[in-house]
Amino acid sequence: MANVTNKYPGESRWKGWWYLLPTLLVYLLFTFLPILETIRTSFYQWDGFSQNKVWIGLSNYAELFSDPKFHNALRNNLVFVIFYSIIPILIGLFLASLLSRRPIPGFAFFRTALFLPQVISMVVVGVIWRWMFNPTFGPINSVLRLVGLKQLAISWLGDFTWALPSVGSIGTWVQYGFCMVLFLAGMQHIQDESYEAASLDGAGAFKQFIHITVPGLRAEIAVALVTTIIAALRVFDLVYTTTRGGPGESTMVTGFLIYRAAFTTNRIGYAAAIATVLTLVILIISMLIRHFQQRGNEENT
Amino acid sequence: MKFPWKNLLPRYLILTVFMLVVLIPIWGMFTSAFKTSTEVMGGPFSLPSNWSLENFEQAWQVGRFNIFFKNSVIVATAVVVSSVFLSTLSGYAFGSLPLPGKNWLYPLILIGYMVPFEAVIIPLYNLLDKFGITDTLWALILPQVGLSVSFGTMWMSSFFENTPKELTDAATIDGCSRWQTLWYILWPIAKPAVTTLVVLIFMWTWNEFLLALVLVQNETLRTLPVGLAFFQGKYTANIPLMAAGAIIVALPTILIYVLFQRFFIRGMLGGAVKG
Q1: Which of B15, B86, B114 sits opposite A22 (nearest CB)?
Q2: Domain ranges for chain A
Q3: CB-CB: which of A22, A34, A128 is closest to B246?
Q4: How far is B53 from chain A (nearest CA, A)?
């Protein structure tokens, strides 16, 4: 796209602007300017409705970085990264390598089912899993009681220790099918000869996996990593519908912290500061995804 | 060729296990929606004694899901139609037209595709308040068009870039204007790309939660996900009723996914991450 001017003789060189203008206006008004406004707001102390908006410089950020609640939320986001990203990618790699390169009859059916959680509203996912985890009549505890593990049938979402991994594992449930489908698509590009050569050299299945499959899927793994990490960092809907950050602050995440600061405790400037930090982290990771995607594309062509 | 059962059977088994982990919770919720409250206590995976639609009727009428459904349909339709139309124009501008400033415009628009909604929600609320349209469906439609055109523009511009230049050149020689070339020559062959864009934007808009939670307060303007979240707060223990509500929310996206699966997966794997 770099050196092509796309201009026909006699045509205005501004032609494209007419086609871009409506989109640009809507985008600037409802997305771009609000981003800038959030950054600006982060330098103020403001309750959201009064005229009294006080410039306080970097104070919100200073407070943020020494706020144990923010540290806790960030830590929880990192735990979510394990459940949303690391575990699903490992499961996805395992399943993909298991299915390997030969087509499996009827695979389309499995793929349809495995991808399903991706299209369901996270609020619905939250409703489903609150029922699954329900301490008295939820399926998980029913099964535990049935097999005689009554002492394990705890209140999963209400337990200070278990609430976070419980909500996190919902993320695993949502993401692993996506990772698997992504990796399987990627495996189509790996040459059969690489595996045959490795077999002749006496490399076992595990060695082939480490030396051929994983490097061959580098681009896809990068995409999966960053996609799911971003999902883990901006998790909000799921926490809202399952635990609202509780019990205590045990499942509190940055997305919910922003919501609470902005719309419950009316600390708009502070909320904007958290939002700015979160956005910055996500932008950096998104840049990485594009970097890896482009590299992946170049290799595939 | 002999069917390699010995080879395939273990794979089918493992696939089935992972598939069941996905399907069992969904199936359990689905059957619960047809049960009575007492039947739900009888065990999560028992089947309802009769498949009555009573819970759906109650969610629809008493739970006001009829209103939420209507709101969701209006918002999703308006967002999809306007975003796809605008993205086609701007994607055409990037992919096929002379566009001075392209090199800085593209990253500018890209940013919108990467930011989380948390980054815009506070100023959006104030902006819409200033316009006096919080508590109208416009408060949900306009911001989501603004947020969707980022991805839409990127998606469509990569389509237009990859169409053979000879096609547009020939159309121009035949006397087509740029506008005619877009709608008569390119639009018909853009169908797969447009379909993917339509189903993705539909899904994102239908499932969007944070904006819909914050930007409208009036109960009669809630969309389905927000309606369901409040419903859950109210009827925590009434599993059959909540299950019915959840199915009303999920069914449209599931149906569209099953019907347009190819387009869906292509888009999602193409790096279509909603930021």
Answers
A1: B86
A2: 64-295
A3: A128
A4: 19
Provide the CATH topology of domain A64-295: MetI-like fold (1.10.3720)
Give the chain B residue nearest A88 (alpha carbons): B18
Per-residue pLDDT tens for B166-209?
888 888 888 888 898 889 889 999 999 999 999 999 999 999 99
Residue of A nearest to B179 (CA): A19
Mutate which of B15, B130, B169 to disrupt the A interface (most A C-beta within 10 Å)?
B15
> Cβ A121–B93 below 8 Å, yes or no?
no
Query: Side-chain half-sphere of A65: how many Cα atoms within 13 Å?
Result: 6
Measured distance CA(A78)–CA(A62) in Å, rounded = 22
Of the candidates A56, A28, A29, A26, the residue with the CA atom closest to the CA atom of residue A43: A56
CA distances from B118 to A265, A269, B20, B200, B210 (A): 16, 13, 34, 20, 8
Task: Tell me phi and psi for residue B2, to 5 degrees.
Answer: -75, 140
Distance of residue A212 Cα from the nearest chain B Cα, in angstroms: 20
Residue B122 has which token pair? 């506070």
Q: What tens digit of pLDDT does each residue of B49-103 get?
A: 888 888 898 889 888 999 999 999 999 999 999 999 999 999 999 988 888 888 9
Do A137 and B153 lie within an 8 Å CB cutoff?
no
- Nearest CB among A23, A35, A122 relative to B120 is that of A35
- For residue A94, give the nearest of A171, A189, A207, A180 by alpha carbon: A180
Taking a C-beta distance cutoff of 8 angstroms, is the pair B222, A123 a contact?
no
Helical axes A163-187 vs A68-81, angle rounded to 10°: 40
B208 and B144 Cβ atoms separated by less than 8 Å: yes
